[in-house]
């Protein structure tokens, strides 16, 4: 009965438009209070205790730093310089600009790991350029929305950090390494339909008449942006700093590039950069803390074990249950962001993963791929909404294009499920 109250209040608050973190916190508080009617106020002490315990974890220190890194590089003009370099390398012609957009999104993913930030940075540069070249705005928004979803797979990734905090058996370096190859595969899979659709619908024909940027000059301007992921990931691999320390190094490197090299960030811009990144970090951490209270209520009220037994005993088998879970995450990913999905569902899914002895790094990457797909799956998709706003097109006009990109993404997911070695090869090779 208490479990029904917990989920009933949570769903009701979500339907009423209450923010997800507040909905989780209020539902859990009421459920904990009802479960301790004899000593309600004493039982409610678990709420602040678990709120603090959820935030008092060392890996979470990296989260606001990487949010700040994303904001800094978004405003430093790195995206525009990376676009020029990719065009200088690949040339011009039908289908080239969508490939460039996806490549640049992948590179920015190696800096911030924030999908909406990448959608804003790449979309602000590429959508206007693609429109001038003859690409339909709805197609451009679809490509940018899908490409920016890769960021939660390619390290550093905020979603992978949150997963590693929730699952002690999956360290941050192991998750970063596990997401690298799938992230690259995801990007390549998106390039193929984007290129084919461009050619089939004769988009980008005027692009061939545009001058090609000089390679030497473009590389010289973009090298500082290219060096960022090398500094972050190479420093961690070399043992120079931990993922948390790498985030701090990336902040100062981004400020150096923006203020000294490119001079696109001025002193009076720092306040707005710090304010915007602080607001986003506070929202994420507030949700993390309240989700900790929600997870505590799930475990102490005895909800997780019956759910686990019901799913395991459903007779669907190991792969049938995995498919069921993935379909559930696709549906949830249409309406919730990735961090919220992890915070709500990982405590419920971990006992199932442990029952089938699934590798926790592999399972985390599979969940992250599903979250990435959900970020550009209509009707509600965070990254797609950002790119549609920039392109000034309604989201429903992107559905016809997005379906092809989703098909390519699901093929990558199928490969990762059938061949877990794709995920686990790099972590094993690096000794994580």
TrEMBL record:
Query: A cellular component term (GO) from this record?
Result: plasma membrane
User: Mind telling me which residue stretches traverse the membrane in this protein?
Assistant: 51-73, 85-108, 114-131, 143-166, 172-197, 246-265, 277-299, 319-348, 360-381, 401-426
Print the keywords alphabetically.
Cell inner membrane, Cell membrane, Membrane, Transmembrane, Transmembrane helix, Transport
GO MF terms, alphabetically ordered? transmembrane transporter activity
As for subcellular location, the record says: Cell inner membrane
Domain TRAP C4-dicarboxylate transport system permease DctM subunit positions: 7-422
What is the name of this protein? TRAP transporter large permease protein
Report the source organism: Orrella marina
């Amino acid at each position: 009965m208490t479990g029904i109250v917990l989920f009933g209040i949570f769903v009701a608050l979500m339907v009423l438009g209450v923010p997800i973190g507040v909905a989780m916190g209020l539902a859990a508080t009421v459920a904990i209070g009802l479960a301790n009617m004899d000593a309600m106020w004493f039982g409610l002490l678990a709420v602040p205790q678990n709120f603090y315990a959820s935030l008092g974890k060392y890996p979470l220190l990296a989260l606001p730093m990487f949010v700040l890194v994303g904001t800094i590089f978004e405003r430093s003009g790195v995206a525009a310089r990376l676009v020029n370099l990719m065009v200088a390398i690949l040339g011009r012609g039908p289908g080239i600009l969508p490939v460039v957009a996806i490549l640049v999104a992948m590179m920015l993913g190696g800096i911030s790991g924030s999908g909406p930030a990448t959608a804003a940075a790449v979309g602000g540069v590429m959508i206007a350029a693609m429109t001038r070249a003859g690409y339909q705005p709805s197609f451009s928004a679809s490509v940018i929305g899908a490409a920016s979803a890769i960021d939660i797979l390619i390290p550093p990734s905020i979603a992978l950090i949150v997963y590693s905090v929730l699952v002690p058996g999956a360290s941050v370096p192991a998750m970063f390494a596990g997401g690298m190859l799938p992230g690259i595969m995801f990007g390549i899979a998106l390039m193929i339909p984007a290129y084919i659709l461009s050619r089939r619908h004769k988009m980008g024909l005027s692009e061939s008449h545009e001058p090609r940027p000089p390679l030497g000059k473009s590389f010289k301007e973009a090298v500082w942006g290219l060096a960022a992921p090398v500094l972050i990931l190479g420093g961690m691999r070399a043992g120079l700093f931990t993922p948390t320390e790498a985030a701090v190094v990336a902040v100062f490197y981004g400020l150096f590039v923006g203020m000294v090299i490119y001079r696109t960030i001025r002193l009076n811009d720092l306040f707005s950069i710090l304010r915007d990144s602080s607001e986003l970090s506070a929202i994420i951490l507030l949700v993390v803390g309240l989700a900790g209270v929600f997870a505590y209520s799930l475990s102490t009220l005895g909800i997780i074990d019956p759910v686990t037994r019901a799913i395991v005993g459903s007779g669907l088998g190991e792969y049938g249950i995995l498919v069921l879970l993935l379909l559930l995450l696709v549906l949830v990913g249409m309406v919730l962001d990735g961090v919220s999905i992890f915070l709500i569902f990982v405590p419920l899914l971990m006992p199932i993963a442990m029952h089938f002895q699934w590798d926790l790094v592999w399972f985390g990457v599979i969940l992250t791929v599903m979250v990435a797909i959900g970020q550009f799956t209509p009707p509600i998709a965070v990254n797609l909404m950002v790119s549609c706003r920039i392109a000034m097109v309604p989201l429903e006009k992107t559905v016809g294009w997005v379906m092809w990109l989703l098909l390519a993404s699901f093929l990558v997911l199928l490969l990762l499920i059938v061949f877990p070695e794709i995920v686990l090869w790099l972590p094993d090779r690096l000794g994580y």
